[in-house]
Amino acid sequence: MEDSPLLLDLYELTMAQAYLRYRKNSLATFDLFVRQLPKGRSYLVSAGLKDILGYIKELSFSSSDLAYLKGKKIFSTEFLKYLANFKFGGDIWAVPEGRIVFANEPLIRVTAPIIEAQIVESFFLNTINLQTMIASKASRVVNAAKDREVFDFSLRRTHGAQAGLKVARSSYIAGFNGTATVLAGKLYHMPVVGTMAHSFIMSFKHELDAFLAYALTFPSRTVLLVDTYNTRQGILNAITGGLYLKKKGYKLQGIRLDSGDIVSLSKLARRLLDNTGLGFVKIFASGNLDEFKIKRLLRQGARVDSFGVGTNMGTSIDAPSLDVIYKIVEVTDEEGNFLPTMKLSKAKITYPGRKQVFRIEDKNGRFIKDILGLEKEKISGLRLLKKVVDKGRIVYKSPTLDKVRLALKSELCRFPQGLLDIDSDYMYQVLVSPALKRLQKSLARQLRERQ
């Protein structure tokens, strides 16, 4: 039901009915963008476009949808008849998934009959907010881990089942190596991973018995959780299990530290494992981790090979929402000519007109700045917004998740290093073109006079 056309705010429909009566033939362009980056963030990672395209493709009102709306006694018969035949027939331009974006840069631009452009607003905002927010947080975690493996452990703490799936997908785009969420593995064709819970160990009389039972059940994929009782003894018991597997021709994959002083415990574990011929066993850490804790652990010399990251990433705990908005930037007059428009509210002024984001690179292929300009401007640079829907028809083939995450990894290498440092105050330069500035200034004056 998450793709139902009724997944929207009521005022989208009440405005649509008024449009039908007074502006039935009007076309409009809307921009979806983040007004300002969350505190401490230097960039965002675009995510959510594939779900938006799926929504557009299937968007229609069922008989039960119409019966429900009729029962509210708000909407006219004429409007309900309009909805019965509703299909999106406009154009959509969007930044592909896995691209770096910044404040005030449109992630999505919609040009369509104004009713259609209005009805899709709530779903678009909801989808981009969650998935871009998570992909951006997860990217920071990946940067902090410095080429070590990172896995999504967030399902039990995400804000609902659907959020759990989208977190798994978005974090994979950002560079995570897999997820513990099995359904995400099935739906998105991504690796699934898992170790064991404390409950498994506690169900046996002796910790070593639990370890051996698990190892014998999964001899080629065993990771042992060693901190249920006494972590040092847990490491020694894991070594016993690892030596037993080695004798049988298998390899213990890893041990997991989930609490305590990860730095000292990981150093102890590495020394003990190496000294007993188990240098191939990886040390896995989990337990309320995020980019800040991971960076601190590694700075202090923690001997950790992989991280399981849950709550703090899955809820983007330090920035649990984005200041994402959807604003009209042009609308047709009675003759069908597009006229730019903008909002003048204090601290919420928007940029008018149909726009494009131009990414400028130096002679070495390094990105040095973005320019937000009018679509028809001749500015040399990479154009971020691509046409994905033409007159209601999907014209963009979504790449595989693996291709998206590789594209993001490649793109990040082309930005200044300061952008990736989670403690840096570096801000990438995003300029507004002179033509767009002039349009904004002259239009603001006209709108004040007109009102």
Tell me about this structure.
The protein contains 16 helices and 19 strands. It is elongated, with a radius of gyration of 26 Å. It is an alpha/beta fold and 451 residues long. The protein has a seven-stranded antiparallel β-sheet.
Question: Strands across the major sheet, in which order?
Answer: 13-12-1-5-3-17-18
Distance between the termini: 42 Å
Q: SS-based structural class?
A: alpha/beta
C-alpha geometry: elongated
Largest sheet composition: 7 strands, antiparallel
Q: How would you state the average pLDDT, rounded?
A: 96
CATH class of the largest domain: Alpha Beta
How many domain regions?
Answer: 2
Specify the CATH homologous superfamily of the largest domain.
Answer: nicotinate phosphoribosyltransferase
In CATH terms, what is the architecture of the largest domain? Alpha-Beta Barrel
Number of helices in the DSSP assignment: 16
Runs with pLDDT <50, length 5+? none
Measured by DSSP, the beta-strand proportion falls in: 15-25%
Would you tell me which CATH topology of the largest domain applies?
nicotinate phosphoribosyltransferase
Strand elements, count: 19
Percent of residues in helices: 25-40%
Task: Write down the Rg.
Answer: 26 Å
Offer a few descriptive terms:
elongated, single chain, nicotinate phosphoribosyltransferase, seven-stranded antiparallel β-sheet, 40% helix, TIM Barrel, 451 residues, six-stranded parallel β-sheet, alpha/beta, 2 domains
Which helices and strands appear, and what pairs or packs with what?
Blueprint: H1 10-22, E1 27-34, E2 44-45, H2 49-58, H3 63-71, H4 77-84, E3 91-94, E4 100-101, E5 108-113, H5 114-119, H6 121-145, E6 149-152, H7 161-173, E7 178-179, H8 182-188, H9 198-202, H10 207-217, E8 223-225, H11 231-247, E9 254-257, H12 262-275, E10 282-285, H13 291-299, E11 306-309, H14 311-314, E12 324-332, E13 338-340, E14 355-361, E15 367-374, E16 382-383, E17 386-390, E18 393-394, H15 401-412, E19 430-432, H16 434-450
Helix pairs in contact: 2-6, 3-4, 6-7, 6-13, 10-11, 11-12
